[in-house]
Amino acid sequence: MPLPRPSHAPVPGPARRTPPRPSRTRPALLAAGCAALLALTAAVPSAAAPVRPAPAGTGAVVLDWYDVTARTVAATAAPTQITNSRTWAVGWIAAARAAREAPGGGPSRGRFQDAAVASAVHDVLAALAPSRKNDLDTALAATLAGIPDGPAEDRGVAAGARQARAVLAARAGDGLDPASSNTPFPVPPAAPGIWQPTPDGYAPAIQYGNRLARPFLLERADQFRLGPPPALDSDRYRADLEEVRAYGAADSAVRSPQQTETANFWYSGSLTLYTDALRVAVARSHGSTADRAALLALFHAASVDTQIATSDSKYTYVRWRPVTAIRTGSIGTDPAWRPLHNTPAHPDYPSGHATYAGAAQAVLDALAGPVTEPFDLTSPTAPGVRRAYTGWDQLTRDNVDARVYSGIHSRTADEAGARLGETVGRYALRHADRLLSGRL
């Protein structure tokens, strides 16, 4: 089911179709073990807002370790986004599985879950980012100091350590490290429609190896491979090219200041921008520690699988980027045309930003509800700008528009990407119990 069509300025050329809005049916998407996840609350106005102390098991520890994870990944970031997404996924899958082991009810269950989550995330991060071990040890000591001593705490710590070891072992050699992600791609001979290195820099292709990596939930990288992009002699292709030529040019006369701001804001990496957005969903949840950990596990597992599926479609069709099409193609050739932003070094179809957004929207719509109280986001590529959002689909809309206004993607690549991401996200939700129970 396609995601909502974003609104944008009029496009030269033929009228463009508007896909229907996706269904909002939520319970059918979830496996039995996740059916109680994440209702809305309006208590937290922004991703940076402090969290009040809460009783054990209510989810406050998840926020603490969310922030620890974010700091750790930022401090030790790999050059490949999929590697950083993997770090989040491994840590929170271990945490979610450990929290599900909690026995019985009452205060002891919450104490077990809090200790399990802290222990699991600590151990995974210490293994994957050993330079941060002292900081991680300090954070773990602070969490455990807030949990009453006793068998529940001890068993939770043990469960977290056990699941961390298990998930780390299961994901060893999964091909999501930077060297594997950037496996060299042999550039095909230049031809109409075929990707070639792009200015400025004409860097070699990146992320080719993602399609060779082992997913978390997908059966294989090509499971949801997209159909081919529009033919070069089609009306859709011509309209796409005319739109990006007009609205994505560095010196565009038709792109509005608001559209330029959108392009700048969403030029940053998807993981960076969605880290704050996802924290809003977790902070506003009424869910338990286990519920919130499950949301994070599913979000990041779906993100990794989406990046794998994106690479599969990209390197199957190897579609040229707009800058190459405009400078060397047969439609209105303009060798001097420049996009607003430099073009990333991989093929056009589909947009990776849009696939990430589609997967994120699918998971957050299902587990946090499609609408929430306003929250603000900032972006490192748009200093001083704050944008307010009230629904996850609005982030998808801006992602789709931004890549056109940046001059680096066709709208077809963006819309197809959002649909692919949504498909992978919904698949992850349907198979949630398989992820969370360890039956992989």
Topology:
Elements: H1 60-75, H2 81-99, H3 107-128, H4 133-145, H5 151-170, H6 178-181, H7 235-247, H8 257-265, H9 270-283, H10 289-317, H11 322-328, H12 352-368, E1 371-378, E2 386-391, H13 392-405, H14 411-430, H15 432-436
Antiparallel strand pairs: 1-2
Helix pairs in contact: 1-3, 1-9, 2-3, 2-5, 2-10, 3-4, 3-5, 8-13, 9-12, 10-12, 10-14, 12-13, 12-14, 13-14
At a glance:
With 440 residues, the protein is mainly alpha-helical. The chain is built from 15 helices and two strands. The chain is elongated and about 75 Å long.
Written account of the structure:
The chain has 440 residues and is mostly helical. The protein has one domain (33-48, 57-183, 193-199, 207-436): Vanadium-containing Chloroperoxidase, domain 2, CATH 1.10.606.20. It is built from 15 helices and two strands. A hairpin with a 7-residue loop joins β1 (371-378) and β2. α1 packs parallel to α3 and α9 (270-283) packs parallel to α12. The longest helix is centred in the C-terminal third of the chain and has 29 residues, at 289-317. The protein is elongated, with a radius of gyration of 22 Å.
List its traits.
two-stranded antiparallel sheet, Vanadium-containing Chloroperoxidase, domain 2, V-haloperoxidase, PAP2/HPO_sf, PAP2 superfamily protein, 2 strands, mainly alpha, 440 residues, 15 helices
